[in-house]
Amino acid sequence: MRLHGLYLIVDLGVENVLARVAQALEGGVDVLQLWGSAPNRADVGHELSKLAKRFSIPLLVQDDLELAKKLGADGVHLDRPEITPQHVRRALGKDAVVGVTCSANFEKVLWAAEQGADYISFCSIFPSPSVAVCDLVPLEVVRRATETVTIPIFAAGGITLDNAHLVLEAGVDGLAVSSSILRAPDPKEAARRFQDVLRRYRTPHVVP
What we know:
Elements: E1 5-11, H1 17-27, E2 31-35, H2 41-54, E3 59-62, H3 65-71, E4 75-78, H4 85-92, E5 97-102, H5 106-114, E6 119-123, H6 139-148, E7 153-156, H7 164-169, E8 174-177, H8 179-182, H9 187-201
Parallel strand pairs: 1-2, 1-8, 2-3, 3-4, 4-5, 5-6, 6-7, 7-8
Helix pairs in contact: 1-2, 1-9
C-alpha cells in the first residue's frame, strides 16, 4: 500500500471529534491516524475503524500495537524509537502499514527506509499547537529526503492552506493535517480545499 494525499491526524482533544472526522471524510481524506492518549481512546478508535471502512481508507494507530490489533487497524505510526517496523509486522502481520516520524536528523530518514517503513512523516515543518514538542524541520531536509529515499514522504506540523504549497513544492507525497481541518469551522470544506491544493501542486516523487 503506497500512501499519499491527505492524511488526517485525529487529535482526541478536539471537541465532538468523531462528528468532525466524519465531516472531513466527506470532503476527502486518504488516510486516518488515531493520535494522542485519552481514557476514551479505544472507544474513539472503534468508531474511527467503522468510518475508515465506510470510506475505504486505511486507519493507523500511533504507537499502540495492542490497540491497533484490537481495532483491526491497517497499521501503526511510530513516534517511539524503541518500536521498529519489524515489531509491528510481527504483531499485526507482514502486510501491516508502518510509518515513522522523522525530525531534522537525516539519519532517522535513512534508518526508516532501511528498516522497511512504508512511509515517513516529517514533524514539525511549521510551528504547531498540536505538536509543541517537535523540532522544526527545514524544507531543505525534506527536499533532500525526496531526492534520497523512494518511500512516500508526508509533511506534518502546522500545515495550513496558506503554507501547504511550500512542502508540496519540496516534493512530498502528502500532507498530514490535524487542527487545520478538525478545528476548522467547516471540516468538510477544509478537507476539500486541501485536496484542491494537493491536486494543484503534488507530483509523485521518484528517486532516480
